[in-house]
Each structure stands twice: as structure tokens, then as C-alpha cells.
Amino acid sequence: MNSSTIFYIVLALFVVWMLYRMFAPVKGLIQLRDEPFRKKMEQSKRKRLIDVREAHEFKAGHIPGAVNIPLSQIGGRLSEISKDGDVFVYCQSGMRSKQAAKMLLKNGFPEINNLMGGISSWSGKRVR
Q: Structural domain of residue 90, as residue ranges?
């Protein structure tokens, strides 16, 4: 094998590994579509709804009752999120909120509910 073949094999393995990490299931992460997400929030007696988009995205429209803690700030604002009750997270498409959920799980939160498809898939009310 020549060096370019080895390079492409290593590159392919890296891409496969990255895709696995991006889409692999995460223990403690509950991925919910729009309607089940909304129903679980309605049934929850103690909940915290977190929008992890940036402030300008939040101001453009968000789910009623959401608190804006951007993904870029969530590590430094963990103390604002109670570990008692249900935690619900969302972003624009579901990818940033999945990253936020992983961070919360690593910091001792037992379970996180993520809106699959993000606010783009949300059919409920929005606050502007």
C-alpha cells in the first residue's frame, strides 16, 4: 500500500467514527418528536424547558415557557438548571440540543428530553 491509500483509509475511518458519534444513541437521552414531546411536557409537574439556540434566534420565536441558555453558554450556566424534575431541550433542528443534552447528562442530570427536528418540527404555539 502506498501512503495515499493509507491516508484515504484513515480518513474514511475517521468519517465513519464521526458519523457514529453524531447519530449513536445516548443513555439517558429521550428523543421525542413534536407531539410526544408536547404531551410529556404537559404531563410533567416540574419541568425546565431550555432553548439552546443563540439569543437572536430565541427572540425570533420560541416555545412558550422556554428559557434561553445557548449551547455556547450551557457549561457555565449549569447551576441555573434544576436536577429535580424533567428537563426538555430544543434548538433549530435538534443537533445542538443533542449536544447540550450530552453535556447535561455528563454533569449528573439523570434524563433529558430532546425535541427531534427542533423548533422547525414544532407545530404548537410560539412566542415572538
A: 27-121
Which member of 41, 49, 66, 91 is catalytic?
Answer: 91
Better-predicted residue by pLDDT, 40 or 27: 40
pLDDT in tens, 84-112: 899 999 999 999 999 999 999 999 999 99
Helix (H) or strand (E) holding 48: strand 47-51
Q: Which residues, other chains included, contact 83 with Cβ-Cβ below 8 Å and sequence gap of 6+?
A: 108, 109, 110
Is residue 91 annotated as part of the catalytic site, yes or no? yes
The domain that holds 57 is classified in CATH as 3.40.250.10
